[in-house]
């Protein structure tokens, strides 16, 4: 007999908080389900309720995998689940593809030939390595030489990886102008892969492709994970690339596991990174039995904002018709169009308007300024600072990418992984009289000793004896000796044999060691010092150094929301990074031809580029709940080289009765 216990709390009334389509999706028993609907229709809400529902059905949290666009999105969804269910879904697996891949690879990377404790290279590390390789293979760049920059070589490689092509095919299709360098590129890519492997390091693309390899090549691990993840849920499915799509299929491939993906083809904006909208459009080719749910109501925006959004996406002729109906009432305000005489005036308008809104009771956290490219935000940043309006930037230099933060982190990385060449070079470059060549020689010597140590101690993944002993005989030029000795003794103190130091203590020790050098190396040391204190506060929350370092490397561009979230801060973000988010008030700036749409898309001659700009515009408009301001500078720059800037075609091609003109002056 089966004895049923009563639920401890009254079950939630899901039907009352969801519309019928959302409810059907949340409670579905279908193995495969797709929710495809326009912006603000509650797709993310559906996934969140689905998690709560599964937990209430008794699914253990660790059998649920929730893949989101940012780690922050995953955290917020789980907080919401906690509110819904009253219990913390503690052990649930939630985060970006990269962070989940990292967690899984930490356990299994040895099966792929990595040593334990691999490090993660962020884009800065990748550039440094690539620059070194270009120098090595191509020599000093001659005048008029068109040899591609490190960034370009990396993008080509990354696009190939993320679209599952050979790099030569991408060269032929997208980078034909570089074909004459094919042989050199071949050698560079070969070395690039070898050097990463040798350094026991993975870049972001490696995290995905290695997870995929792990699942494809190791049946036992695949079986274990398929057994574990009974329910796989994916947000923003329209922006998955090929490795991600394959990973999802494999992880959700267990007998009886379920897969739910949600997304909107009209918001696919990452094709330049290899995302492929066909994954969502052709979902049923892969999963023929899939249930498909469509939502036609928009819950986010007032009708006037929804009207302009619907009109904007209609600029793309070739699309699935799915205009949304508003659930909200009108607030009687039309989206405002603001032609400003120049960029400074545009910025002044925005600062003044934000000031008024905040004085009227709208907190900064409900206001966002969005733009096509990070540099468009410069004037606004200056003007906000001038007006003492606090803001946080989710584009541009992120906290952990700042030089002084990376300096400190380099020591910790080397401590964890003595094979981390980039960290080592960064450290020795803080010594006086150490240039690239000397650093290279020192590295060769360090590496030899470190490798010999690790061979002699097969159980160790780092140097466990005092560094001053192990590296006593390293080849170091006489002039550098004193600094070398100080560095080794610092490393000794970071790794005392008696007890492991806490990450926060490690940061403080390295900071103290670096302080004299930093005071001379950086002009605004005092501000930077604040960052380092903040760093110590942040790592204080991490239990061990390895997880902290993985965390640092994984704070992807979209994810570097300031460490201390501040409710009063206005958000500045590129549109790409604003995906999935919403604010009461949105300012969309720099809406001039060539700025947005981007000149590159206008000139490319490929209509799909312009279509992606339209989708990006649609994403921007649909972030707004109550108020929307669309502005552009007639002149960009005030000096002799100022550019005349006609209004964006996006503004001029929309019916003018959908917006109201605001003359500023
Ligand atoms: P995007 O395409 O931008 O990612 P989305 O489809 O994921 O949007 P959500 O962010 O889930 O939409 O929802 C938009 C807003 O509408 C949220 O504030 C959400 O709480 C609200 N909402 C969604 N569905 C409902 C509903 N049935 N009742 C009330 N509010 C809802
Ligand atoms: Mg969403």
Written overview of the protein:
- It is a single chain.
- With 665 residues, the protein is an alpha/beta fold.
- Strands 11, 12, 13, 14, 15, 16, 17 and 18 form an 8-stranded mixed β-sheet that branches. Strands 3-2-6-7-1-8 form a 6-stranded parallel β-sheet, with helices on both faces.
- The N and C termini lie far apart (80 Å).
- The relative contact order is 0.12.
- Residues 556-565 have low confidence and may be disordered.
- The protein binds adenosine-5'-triphosphate and magnesium ion.
Short description:
The protein has 665 residues and is of the alpha/beta class. It is 47% helix and 12% strand.
Beta-sheet strand percentage? 5-15%
Q: Number of helix segments?
A: 28
- Kindly report the average pLDDT value: 87
Anisotropy-based shape: globular
Helix and strand arrangement:
Elements: H1 14-17, H2 20-26, E1 32-36, H3 43-56, E2 64-67, H4 71-85, E3 93-95, H5 97-108, E4 119-121, H6 123-138, H7 150-163, H8 167-174, H9 182-198, E5 201-203, H10 204-217, H11 219-228, E6 231-234, H12 242-251, E7 258-263, H13 278-281, H14 283-286, E8 291-293, E9 297-298, H15 303-313, E10 325-326, E11 336-342, H16 343-359, E12 367-371, H17 378-386, E13 391-393, H18 403-416, H19 421-428, H20 436-456, H21 467-470, H22 481-494, H23 503-521, H24 525-539, H25 545-554, E14 570-574, E15 583-588, H26 599-603, H27 607-621, E16 624-636, E17 643-644, H28 649-652, E18 660-661
Parallel strand pairs: 1-7, 1-8, 2-3, 2-6, 4-5, 6-7, 9-10, 11-16, 11-18, 12-14, 12-15, 13-14, 15-16
Antiparallel strand pairs: 16-17
């Amino acid at each position: 007999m089966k004895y049923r216990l009563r639920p401890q709390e009254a079950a939630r009334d899901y039907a009352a908080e969801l519309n019928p389509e959302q409810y059907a999706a949340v409670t579905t028993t279908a193995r495969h389900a797709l929710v495809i609907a326009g912006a603000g229709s509650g797709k993310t809400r559906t996934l969140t309720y689905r998690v709560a529902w599964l937990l209430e059905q008794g699914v253990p949290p660790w059998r649920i995998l929730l893949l989101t666009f940012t780690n922050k999105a995953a955290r917020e969804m789980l907080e919401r689940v906690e509110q819904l269910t009253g219990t913390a879904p503690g052990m649930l697996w939630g985060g970006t593809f990269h962070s989940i891949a990292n967690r899984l690879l930490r356990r299994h990377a040895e099966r792929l030939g990595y040593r334990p404790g691999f490090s993660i290279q962020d884009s800065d590390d990748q550039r440094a390595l690539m620059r070194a390789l270009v120098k090595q293979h191509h020599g000093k760049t001659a005048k008029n030489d068109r040899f591609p920059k490190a960034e370009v070589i990396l993008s080509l490689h990354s696009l190939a990886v993320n679209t599952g092509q050979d790099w030569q095919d991408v060269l032929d299709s997208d980078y034909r102008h570089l074909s004459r360098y094919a042989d050199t590129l071949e050698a560079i890519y070969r070395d690039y892969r070898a050097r990463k492997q040798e350094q026991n390091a993975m870049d972001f693309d490696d995290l995905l492709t290695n997870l995929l390899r792990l699942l494809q090549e190791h049946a036992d691990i695949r079986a274990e994970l398929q057994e574990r993840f009974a329910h796989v849920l994916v947000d923003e499915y329209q922006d998955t690339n090929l490795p991600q799509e394959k990973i999802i299929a494999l992880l959700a491939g267990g007998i009886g596991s379920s897969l739910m993906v949600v997304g909107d083809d009209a918001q696919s904006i990452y094709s330049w990174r290899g995302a492929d909208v066909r994954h969502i459009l052709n979902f049923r080719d892969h999963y023929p039995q899939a249930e498909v749910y469509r939502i036609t109501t928009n819950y986010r925006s007032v009708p006037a904002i929804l009207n302009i959004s619907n009109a904007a996406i209609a600029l793309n002729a070739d699309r699935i018709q799915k205009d949304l109906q508003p659930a909200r009432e009108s607030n009687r305000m039309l989206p405002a169009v603001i032609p400003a005489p120049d960029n400074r005036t545009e910025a002044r308008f925005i600062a003044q308007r934000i000031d008024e809104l905040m004085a009227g009771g709208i907190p900064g956290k409900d206001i966002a300024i969005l733009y096509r490219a990070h540099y468009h935000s410069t004037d606004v940043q200056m003007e906000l600072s001038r007006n003492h309006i606090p803001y946080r930037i989710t584009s541009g230099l992120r906290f952990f990418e700042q030089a002084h933060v990376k300096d400190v982190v380099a020591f910790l990385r080397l401590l964890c992984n003595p094979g981390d060449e980039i960290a080592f070079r960064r450290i020795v470059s803080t010594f006086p009289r150490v240039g690239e060549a000397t650093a290279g020689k020192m590295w060769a010597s360090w590496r030899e000793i470190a490798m010999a140590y690790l061979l002699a101690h097969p159980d160790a993944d780092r140097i466990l004896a005092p560094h001053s002993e192990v590296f006593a005989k390293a080849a170091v030029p006489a002039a550098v000796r004193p600094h070398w000795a100080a560095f080794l003794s610092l490393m000794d103190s970071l790794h005392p044999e008696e007890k492991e130091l806490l990450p926060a203590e490690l940061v403080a020790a390295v900071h103290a060691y670096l302080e004299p050098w930093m005071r001379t190396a950086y002009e605004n040391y005092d501000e930077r010092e604040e960052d380092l204190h903040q760093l110590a506060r942040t790592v204080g929350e991490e239990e061990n150094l390895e997880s902290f370092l993985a965390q640092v490397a994984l704070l992807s561009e979209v994810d570097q929301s300031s460490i201390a979230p501040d409710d009063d801060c206005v958000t500045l973000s590129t549109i790409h990074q604003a995906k999935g988010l919403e604010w009461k008030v949105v300012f969309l700036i720099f809406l001039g031809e060539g700025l947005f749409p981007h000149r590159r898309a206008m000139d490319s001659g490929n209509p799909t580029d312009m279509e992606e700009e339209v989708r990006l515009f649609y994403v921007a408009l649909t972030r707004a709940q109550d108020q929307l301001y669309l502005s552009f500078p007639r002149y960009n720059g005030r000096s002799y080289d100022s550019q005349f800037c006609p209004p964006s075609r996006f503004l001029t091609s929309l019916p003018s009765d959908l917006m109201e003109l605001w003359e500023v002056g």
